[in-house]
Amino acid sequence: MKGLASFLLALALLAIGLPRTADAHPHVWIDTHATLRFDAGKLVALDVVWVFDDFFSSMMIEDFAAKGGKDFTPEGHGELESQVMLPMEEFGFFTHVTADGTALKIEKIANFKASIEDGRVIFAFRALLPRAVDPRVTALSVGLYDESYYVELLLDEWDPFRLAGDAVPACAIDMTEDMSRPLYYGAFFPRVATLRCTGS
User: Widest CA span of the chain, in angstroms?
Assistant: First the structure.
């Protein structure tokens, strides 16, 4: 299948880490937002949503969707998870969390679901933190981006990060550019959310 082959080739370029040339630029665009999931006042996971651009969506729909392109077949859904989503573990699923300046790599996800809406493919999944973090006593920041800048993740303009769960602390969220993590040869810097939290 031509579309699937092209899609997997793009993912392979990510996986093998080919050096980018001077004319490199994003080849995949994803609209994204995340809900920070709390349990007993501590951050334990992020519920992340990716909405793929029209071109990549059309390839996935062609290769994995049921006839008519309205939804994925059970087999197609399983292949999307195994062939497309799970290999993103190497890149932390483009989900970055730091606690007191230390990166907490996302190595596991749950609740993966792929769907189609208005011709665009949507991935939703829960990114599990390796340990719970209390933002009332820990400096916490989160970001959604691809460090190689092969994929550009475009944060929701109005509400990129939401809070939900049990005993959610009262938090202010500051959106800033992380100047310590230049992307695309320093041309861009990822936008990250820094939490300032008090009691529940």
Answer: 54
Are 40 and 166 contacting, i.e. CB atoms less than 8 angstroms apart?
A: yes
> Per-residue confidence of the chain (200 residues) as pLDDT tens digits?
444 444 544 554 444 444 444 455 678 899 999 999 999 999 999 999 999 999 989 988 988 998 888 899 999 999 999 888 998 898 999 999 999 999 999 999 999 999 999 999 999 999 999 999 999 999 999 999 998 888 899 999 999 999 999 999 999 999 999 988 888 788 889 999 999 998 65
In this structure, what token pair is assigned to residue 81? 């998870």
Its pTM stands at 0.87
CA atoms of 47 and 105, how far apart (whole Å): 15
Token pair in block for residue 192: 């990250």
Cα–Cα distance for residue pair 161/7, rounded to 1 Å: 29
Q: What span, in angstroms and rounded, lies between the C-alpha atoms of 90 and 16?
A: 10
Give Cα separations from 170 to 4, 148, 158, 167, 190 (angstroms).
Answer: 45, 34, 19, 9, 25
Helix (H, G, I), strand (E, B) or coil at 103: strand
Contact indicator for 96, 192 with CB cutoff of 8 Å: yes
